[in-house]
Structures are given as C-alpha cells and as structure tokens.
Specification:
With 294 residues, the chain is of the alpha/beta class. It is built from ten helices and eleven strands. The protein folds into two domains: 85 residues, Leucine Dehydrogenase, chain A, domain 1 (Rossmann fold); 133 residues, NAD(P)-binding Rossmann-like Domain (Rossmann fold), CATH 3.40.50.720. A six-stranded parallel beta sheet has the order 1-11-8-7-5-6. Strands 3-2-4 form a three-stranded parallel beta sheet, sandwiched between helices. A hairpin with an 8-residue loop joins strand 9 and strand 10. Helix 1 runs parallel beside helix 10 and helix 6 packs across helix 7. The longest helix is centred in the C-terminal third of the chain and has 21 residues. It is globular, with a radius of gyration of 19 Å. It binds 5,10-Methenyltetrahydrofolate. The site of 5,10-Methenyltetrahydrofolate has 16 residues, from strand 4 and helix 10. Homodimer. Pathway: One-carbon metabolism; tetrahydrofolate interconversion. Catalyzes the oxidation of 5,10-methylenetetrahydrofolate to 5,10-methenyltetrahydrofolate and then the hydrolysis of 5,10-methenyltetrahydrofolate to 10-formyltetrahydrofolate.
Length: 294
C-alpha cells in the first residue's frame, strides 16, 4: 500500500521556511494580486493567497477590476504595478473573463515581478537553464517528489502526462534540470500505459478524472497527481460533487510507493510556491542575498 504524500504538510513546511526567510530580509516583500471579475472559485483562491502571504510576514495588495474591465484597463493596472517600486510580485489571477486576451495581459507583467513564472522571459530563462522565477505548480511537483526521494533526483525516469504551458511543459523542464530522464506523454502517445510503467516519478497533468489506473504504475513509483477535477458524487446525495485527481487513487495506491491525494496534494503547494517566488523576486529585484534554506 502506497504511503500518502501530505501536500498540506509539505506546503505548510515551505510556508514556514518562507516566513523564516522573510524575517532575515532587510525589508518586507509585497505581492500585488489582481482579480478581474467575480468568479467565485477565483475569489476563494485570491482570499487564500492574500491570507497566506500575510501569515508569512509579507504584505499583500489586492486589486479588483469589474468583470467588464477592458484589456486596456487591465494592462494599465499592470503597468502601474510594474512601475510601483513597493511591489515585488504581480499575480494576475487566471482565467480572465471572456473577451480579454490572457497571454497579452501576462506579457505586460515586468519579468522581474512575474511570480507565476508565466511570461516569455521566465519561460525562456527556464529553457536556457538561467536562474529566474519558475511556474508554481510544477515547482510544487518537484518539491513533493524530493520530500520522499530526497534532494537528489538524478537518473530518475519521469513521465509527465500532458504538455500544457501552465504545467506539463515546465514540469518536464524542471525535472530535467534535476538531471532526471524525462518523457512528455500526450494525447498522441502510443501505449501510454506501458510508457507510464517505466516511470519512477509519474506526473499526470491533463485534467481527465481518474484516467491513470493501477496497472499503469510501476510498483513502488512516486505518483504526483496534478489533476483537480470536480465530478458528480451521487453517492453523497442529489447534486453533490467531489474532487478527484487524474489518477484513480484507490487503484493506484495499491501499486505506487508514494502517492499525492486530491485534494491535499499538489494544490496547496501551488500557493506555497507563489509565496516562495515572491521572496525570490524581492531578493533579485532589490539586490538582497537569497536567504539560505528556501
Ligand atoms: N495566475 C494564476 N496563478 C495560479 O496559480 C492560479 C490561477 N491563476 N488561477 C487558478 C489556478 C488554480 N490554483 C489552485 C491553487 C490552490 C489549489 C488548492 O489548494 N486546492 C486544494 C483544494 C481546493 C478545494 O477544495 O476546492 C487542494 O488541492 O487540496 C487549487 C488550485 C491556482 N491557480
């Protein structure tokens, strides 16, 4: 039976380290969160980000634009935050309301303040192997893998299922930077189950509920499940839903050595890594030494 990787606990550890690091800095890092519109899920995420930022001893500024804000208004706000010397990190909460161009808006964020690691500059630096701000969810996956395998992941076979800009591609690059042997699988991959069985670390990130079955998993492998899917749960009552990952947990936990649950796995790591990036951005930008132990 696989051991559960407690993402909530690992995320709390990362946030505690961030909090300790913040105390050693000559000033207080500031994260600006930009929310456009009234999407209830986004409002919950933003509230959690603001609370956890403050708990880690950092300042957070919350900017809320109406759902009918224009592209120019969003970009003008980002430009203002770019020019505000108090602001170290800018988080533009995604998705934006329909009609707004997400990629163009992200590209307005000054690379030095890109705590989501989503600008072309940040992506380019990751590909080139230069230091920089890394995407949060993929960073969380690497930290979770290290939490059970130790800091040295070199030589591990990693299979990432999914090639999205947000998770799959950057996750593959981050594991490559850890000297893993990385394969990116996707919808055209042949014999996906057999490929997955070669993985020491399996990272499904496609958004298909319970797609990965137990017989896709190498005995003893580490399964880092990025999927967060809401599905109907009639067993809980009429109209009820529940969250499941991209892996069939009950099936995979019989084979894997370690497995992340959903919820309580990768999700909490995303926010913890955002806080970590805010410290890193503040240090780079203000010329402070990066605290050790981050
Ligand atoms: N610019 C931007 N950056 C993001 O990083 C970003 C974003 N926009 N938009 C939305 C997505 C989603 N996201 C999550 C963060 C935490 C959990 C999380 O902690 N989930 C809990 C459970 C949540 C629940 O119960 O609904 C868990 O998995 O245990 C999930 C999802 C960050 N996102």
């Amino acid at each position: 039976m696989a051991e559960r990787i407690d993402g909530k606990q690992v995320a709390a550890d990362v946030r505690a380290k961030v909090g300790e690091a913040v105390k050693t800095l000559p000033g207080q890092p500031t994260l600006a969160v930009v929310l456009v519109g009234e999407d209830p899920a986004s409002q919950v995420y933003v509230r959690n980000k603001v609370r956890q930022t403050e708990e880690a001893g950092m300042r957070s500024l919350h900017h809320h634009l109406p759902v009918d804000a224009s592209q120019d208004e969003v970009e003008a706000l980002i430009s203002r935050l770019n020019g505000d010397d108090e602001v170290d990190g800018i988080l533009l909460q995604l998705p934006l309301p329909k009609g707004l161009d997400e990629q163009r808006a992200i590209e307005c964020i000054a690379p030095a303040k890109d705590v989501d690691g989503l600008t072309e500059a940040s992506a380019g630096r990751l590909v080139l192997g230069k230091d920089g701000l890394r995407p949060c969810t993929p960073t969380g996956c690497v930290i979770l893998a290290k939490s059970v395998l130790g800091d040295d992941l070199s030589g591990k076979n990693v299979v990432v299922i999914g090639r999205s800009i947000l998770v799959g591609k950057p996750a593959a690059l981050l594991f490559l930077a850890e000297n893993c042997t990385v394969t990116i699988a996707h919808s055209r991959t042949k014999d996906l189950a057999a490929l997955c069985r070669t993985a020491d670390i399996l990272v499904p990130a496609v958004g298909r509920p319970e797609m990965v079955k137990g017989d896709w998993v190498k005995p003893g492998a580490v399964l880092i499940d990025v999927g967060i899917n809401r599905i109907d749960a009639p067993e809980k009552g009429e109209g009820k839903t529940r969250l499941v990952g991209d892996a069939d947990f009950g099936d995979c936990e019989k084979v894997a050595g370690h497995i992340t649950p959903v919820p309580g796995g990768v999700g909490p790591m995303t926010i913890a890594c955002l806080l970590r990036n805010t410290v890193i951005a503040a240090c780079y930008r203000r010329g402070w030494a990066l605290p050790s132990g981050l």
